[in-house]
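Late entry, iron/sulfur cluster complex.
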Amino acid sequence: MQSLRYYRELIQKIDAFTDSVVSTYGNRLQCRKGCSSCCILQTIMPVELVPILQWYAAQPELIQNTITHKKSDSCIFLHLDSCIIYPVRPIICRTHGYPVLLHNNVDICPLNDGIQFEPQHILHLENCNTMLAAINILFIKEIHIPALQKERINLQAFFQSPESDILSVVHALKGY
Ligand code: SF4
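Prediction complete; structure with ligand written out below:
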């Protein structure tokens, strides 16, 4: 699917950006395993759910058990201050904490405040969001699975569906 290819390319660009920030500012950044202050994700676009579902399909019991036992308001994928879907996390999770330009202001996690970032290390978040929204529109046109034909998906509601329902979406995705 074209939309999934575009999504993967966007992720590669974002990861290249954050790799460059990390290699430049290193230990001065507080973003690292164990810091979960920004893990409050509730909804995502359906195109972002696809890699998560493919990840889920490989270990449904582990993921279901972790989600089922959640009691806090944090992201359903946060477990013991770690992300259980880290390799397939959505784009917002890949940019959180790092300097982003939003409405002509540089936004940064307070824990990273005080670092002087060079302009090339500031991500233009509105451009990213515009690209992601366009990719998601294309995805909704390309996909014919009703559960994924939505503007946004509530993670808690989706992953608290019966496991058979989730796996049937995974199965349907294999046709794409
Ligand atoms: S998906 Fe992972 S990185 Fe993103 S908010 Fe949830 S736990 Fe945090």
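Residues 2-30+40-173 form one domain. Will revisit in the morning.
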